[in-house]
Amino acid sequence: MRPRPALFAVLTSLAVAALAGSHAAAAPVTDTTVVAATDTDGDSLPDAWETNGYDANGDGVVDVDLPAMGANPKKKDLFVEMDYMSGRLASTAALDRIVQVFSTAPVSNPDGSTGITIHLDAGAARGTKYDLGGGNEVAYDDDLNPSATQTNALKAANFATARKAVFHYMLWGDSYDGGCSSGQAFNIPNDTFIVTVGQKCNWNATDDTNVGTFVHELGHNLGLQHGGADGLNYKPNYLSVMNYSFQLGGVLKSDGTKYWGYSNVQPTSINEARPDETAGLGSLGAGYRTSWKCPDGKTRTTTGAANQPIDWNCDGDTSDTTTAADINGDKTTSVLIAQNNWANLVFGGGAVGGGTEPRTKTPASELRELTHEEALALH
Ligand SMILES: [Ca+2]
Ligand SMILES: [Ca+2]
Ligand SMILES: [Ca+2]
Ligand SMILES: [Ca+2]
Ligand SMILES: [Zn+2]
């Protein structure tokens, strides 16, 4: 049997004291218990939850059995429950690719390993490997509108309340808010997102579409923006699926392969007031190709490695060093700053986690046991 949580032990002793016949009024119970939980691996899931399971309401019964689900207190874990509309759930091959993006991440752990273990829960739909008992199909709705309200309603009806502190919730849907956006994460960071590359807007989603969009939206939950630490999109030195240039087609590697994860390098910044074409992305661009915007609004992509000179202003040469160019196409002149995403993930968005932050637990007044007075009144 697992050790009982401390709060349960306190309530039990109070109840025993009451039943022992004390006529003194019980001391008022403080209404909030704040616990700074130990989180050795920094994934926002306290060691106690990852070791013993999570008891959401302090009744001594584990509600989310984290160790049985594969959690490790010394390695970063992410849990994602996936609900889905008919035909929209990603394939097993796509889910395998998502897992691989995280398992191969350049993130170190206290147990000496690298990578993040992502636990995807599709219920029974994709076999035991992706079944943690939570994911399920929901009614088809080709337009979640308004998206936040309708997503929250589906979450409330299809996601166990006790999971809120552990699992991110996502939905494989069709479209939302009358538009054709590929997805939505509602907040940065957050605990909820939707992937909406469905039939209504003729996405004809492939595994690539689903993998790129899932990883992108989850990235918002993990604190990442379209420019890394800022919202500037299409920065050629930001080699991440968080960049719209690479969400659906992958980050382009110079060896011809594609990468479907978050950036693991931070190439040199580019000053659009006087970008140095001869420098390309600098030495950290060697393993990549990249894309940027020309003055005519069209996207151009390097044919070779991005540490080579790049024609940022699209005038046919790669020798300009003092000519302004709007390289990310946003009609402003900025310094384009990249980010190493993996070094900047925020765990514990929304309601997820206890982590190193003091966490307000359920008020003890809501866990109130039967009082002696009430017990006597029953007879
Ligand atoms: Ca942890
Ligand atoms: Ca962990
Ligand atoms: Ca040029
Ligand atoms: Ca610009
Ligand atoms: Zn986005």
Can you describe what's shown?
The protein has helices at 6-19, 47-52, 92-103, 147-158, 207-221, 244-247, 372-377; strands spanning 34-35, 77-84, 117-121, 167-172, 183-184, 192-195, 251-252, 258-259, 270-271, 291-293, 299-301, 335-336, 359-360. The protein is globular, with a radius of gyration of 25 Å. It is an alpha/beta fold and 379 residues long. The longest helix has 15 residues, at 207-221. The two termini are 34 Å apart. Helix 3 (92-103) links the parallel strand 2 and strand 3. It has 7 helices and 13 strands. Bound molecules: calcium ion (CA) (4 copies) and zinc ion. One calcium ion (CA) binds next to loops. One calcium ion (CA) is lined by residues 272, 326, 328, 330, 332-334. It holds the Pfam family Reprolysin_3. InterPro entries: MetalloPept_cat_dom_sf. Residues 1-26 form the signal peptide. Keywords: Signal.
Give me a quick take on this structure.
This protein has 379 residues and is of the alpha/beta class. The protein has helices spanning 6-19, 47-52, 92-103, 147-158, 207-221, 244-247, 372-377, and strands at 34-35, 77-84, 117-121, 167-172, 183-184, 192-195, 251-252, 258-259, 270-271, 291-293, 299-301, 335-336, 359-360. Bound molecules: calcium ion (4 copies) and zinc ion.
Question: pLDDT under 50 segments (min length 5)?
Answer: 1-31, 355-379
Oligomer: single chain
Work out the number of β strands: 13
Q: What gap, in angstroms, lies between the N and C termini?
A: 34 Å
Reading the helices and strands in chain order gives HEHEHEHEEEHHEEEEEEEH
Radius of gyration: 25 Å
Can you list the ligands bound to this structure?
A: calcium ion, zinc ion
Question: Percent helix among the residues?
Answer: 10-25%
Please state roughly what percent of the residues sit in beta strands, choosing from under 5%, 5-15%, 15-25%, 25-35%, 35-45% or over 45%: 5-15%
